[in-house]
Amino acid sequence: MVEDSQPLSAVYSSYLKNENISLRNAYNGHTALDLIHSFKPHIILLDLYLPDISGFEILNHIKTNRLDILVVVITGSDSVEDAADVMRYGAYDFLSKPVSAARLRVTLSNTVKHLHLDTLVNQYQKDMNDQFVGFIGTSKVMKGIYQTIERVAPSKASVFITGESGTGKEVCAEAIHKLSNNRNGKFVPLNCAAIPKDLIESEIFGHVKGAFTGAIGTRIGAVGIADGGTLFLDEICEMDLALQSKLLRFLQTGKFYKVGSSEVEEVDIRIICATNRNPLLEVKAGRFREDLYYRLHVIPIHLPPLRERGDDVERIATKFLLEFSKEENKAFRRFTIRASQLLLCYDWPGNVRQLQNVMRQIVVMNDGEEVTEEMLPAVIRDAGNRVTDSPMYGPVVSPIVVQSAQVINTANSSFSSVTDGLRPTRMEDLKPMAEIEQIYIENAIRICGGSIDKAAKYLDINPSTIYRKKASWKNEGGNENTRAI
Fold it and tell me: Which domains does the chain possess?
């Protein structure tokens, strides 16, 4: 607090004595500048008219040196011009004297909240190059997921996450928690598929001593532990129907009973759930309550499989490679070109979890600075070799050219027109460039397992270019695949 009137400074300090802050007082501008660099405050309550220097000089010093300090100006002036000036100089808020205790506390509280939000955003931006609150990747589909997480995190709405095993459903749930207003509470994950049917109610709601055989003491359940935070129910579709009705009642009222207890308890938590099944199919099959589904399925988030995330595969693999190399005291830093291509060609049925295990296996079982093709598991090498000709593969040959040549040379006679078109030897073999382009691009897509993103990477064009061309082929010929191999 920078205020030249010591009695007024004492009054303001008394207003804030019960606030959870550490307060220092300065009675002139030079002392304030010293405290800025020694005390390093997060917030300054600043009087503009000081006996030695102007408060504008302090504002300018903070702005020029790009200091992360929020300034609330408190001054005897109530002119609009002064308010506009201090805002141009970078002040966060402006108060005119006299300032009541309630007004000062509310303003300080709002400033603290803004400070916490800025700190959170800045921290995530520092980690954001390829990462987002635990996620790694910059593919278009994942950027959409990040935007959804940012939008839903501040609300209290239930979130229902779907996706194949290993796609990062728990990472998604924890990201929502970390960006939410209840981030200071606990994030409590519970896997419904991993708990025996007769124990899951106790795991969720807790039990009292003697509630059942083996209940030798009172136990706080997951909802009690998560009070003020977030409860993540993974594999929710595995939950027994009888327990689903109790969960529904809890969601509707926020109240529950421990197993064996007649005492009602109440908590304030956010529920996030996930499943690797199709929840609507589970409802239709009678295995999941329809009313519970609609209670939970407020904000749906579907996580894409790794095979649909393009270059994110290499980014995630590199992150795991460096992390495990540090743990195991190894020197691995990168992948050879061939190893990278094989990683991108593989379908990753186990998704990110499988990729993580593969990277750890490579680091533990091998040495070197580069991961080579020979270090990859046989299943990944074999899958890649089915679409590439490894003896021809090298830095001077485009991967997609090699892949197309392999397909052409091993296919049946129906490929002959493509061979003629790509490597004509007679005038009558020449074909229109547009036709050759379509055949080439559609073969690239097929070789890449139907992934337009992968095909675009190898062809060194934007995926949107392929989508536009496919649309034009359809408009011209009725079916964009009429000339495809």
Answer: 6-122 (3.40.50.2300), 137-304 (3.40.50.300), 312-477 (1.10.8.60)
